[in-house]
Design a protein that fits this description.
single chain; alpha/beta; 3 strands; about 15% strand
Length: about 140
C-alpha cells in the first residue's frame, strides 16, 4: 500500500501505468487447510478491483493474476497434494504473457480454475462434503 501511495500520483500525472497483483486461485474457494492464505488473497482481489474502478479512467491498468500452485519455497512446505503444480519457470512465463496482454484478471491453470468453478456451483451441503473429503 505504501509503495502504491508513492507510485499512483506519478501514474495519474502520466495518464498511464500498470500495477500487477499476484493473488491465487485459493481466493476463490475456502479450504480449511488454507484459511488465512485464502482470505488474505480474497481481500487482495477486492482491493485490486477497487483500484481498477478508481483508476481506469486515469489510464492506469490494474491486473490481478490468480495462479494455482507454482513450485516455490511456500509450496515445498505443503504436506498435501497440489493438483496441476507448475514449475516456477512455467508459472512466470504464463504471468508475463498475461501481463503483456493487459488482462484485467487472469486465472491459471484453466483446468484447475474450471474445477474450482464447478465446486462453487454445487449446493453448500455437497460442497462441504467434497471439501471435507479432500482435507
Amino acid at each position: 500500500h505504501a509503495i502504491l501511495e508513492i507510485l499512483l500520483p506519478h501514474f495519474v500525472s502520466q495518464k498511464s501505468g500498470k500495477i500487477v497483483f499476484v493473488s491465487s486461485l485459493a481466493s476463490l474457494i475456502s479450504m480449511p487447510t488454507a484459511k488465512a492464505y485464502a482470505s488474505s488473497k480474497r481481500a487482495l482481489n477486492a482491493y485490486a478491483e477497487a483500484l481498477h474502478y478508481k483508476y481506469k479512467k486515469e489510464g492506469i491498468q490494474i491486473i490481478t493474476l490468480l495462479p494455482g500452485f507454482i513450485q516455490s519455497e511456500l509450496t515445498d512446505k505443503n504436506k498435501f497434494k497440489m493438483p496441476f503444480l507448475l514449475s516456477t519457470k512455467d508459472g512466470v512465463k504464463i504471468m508475463k504473457r498475461a501481463i503483456d496482454k493487459n488482462k484485467r484478471s487472469y486465472v491459471f491453470p484453466l483446468r484447475f480454475y474450471l474445477i474450482i468453478s464447478l465446486l462453487r456451483l454445487l449446493p453448500q451441503f455437497l460442497r462441504e462434503r467434497i471439501v471435507n473429503s479432500i482435507n
